[in-house]
Write a structure and sequence with these properties.
By secondary structure, the chain is of the alpha/beta class. 29% of the residues lie in helices and 23% in strands.
Amino acid sequence: MGRKKYLPNDASFLMHTAVDEKSSAPRPHLPIPRKVCVIARTHSANQDDWMRAYMYSMKSQTMGNFSLSLVNTDTGTHDTDIMTKERERFSRLVESMDDERITLAPTLPQNTPDTYGYVETDMELARLLANESCEYIHVSNADNLLNRAYFEYADEYMRRNIDLIGVSFVLHHARANHKNLPITTKFSMGNIDLACGVFRTETIKRCGITFLPTTRIFEADWYFFEKILKCPGTTKVAIPEVLLMHQ
């Protein structure tokens, strides 16, 4: 038995339940949502249960027109045995999702520990940009939780071809001596998380945007946003609803 197949979006969202007077078929309601290709970065700090919870939050999206590639960004070794065991571990994790939309990316660790997995991230980004079905890109460290309506909210703006879409989020790190505070997303350093963003593929292609090179590796996520914002003609929108829990 193969892995479960899913409609490109939630059927109840796409179709009215009422029956057309001249046909027994349901009437179309809204167009098929834009296709989002997801890069889920993993590294040694990610526990399997965190990644599993993240992927379940993807599986539960009310609009399911996405594909997710789990990218092994565990860098720093050429040990064949270790790499093989890690790939087997991630393969088992992906298989446990029983969802054909969730796959293990073909990208392999490149033994570049000082880049914290951004070499592999850029490699997977290039692979997805060559896929004509990818209309938008979403990148996460695979330890966040998405509200099930995340892509449903974003799709309103994806269908308007907005280049950069951001959602508000709950921040795990302490701010004003408190953790788990809701943050209204702003397109500025410290006020947005990588997983808050949905990026238009054509804009990334047009301006040749990648994570590397960067002069400040620990701020590479923010500088990815900044590169998009500096791309001529970029349109952006910040969604006020809190749709992501940062871990």
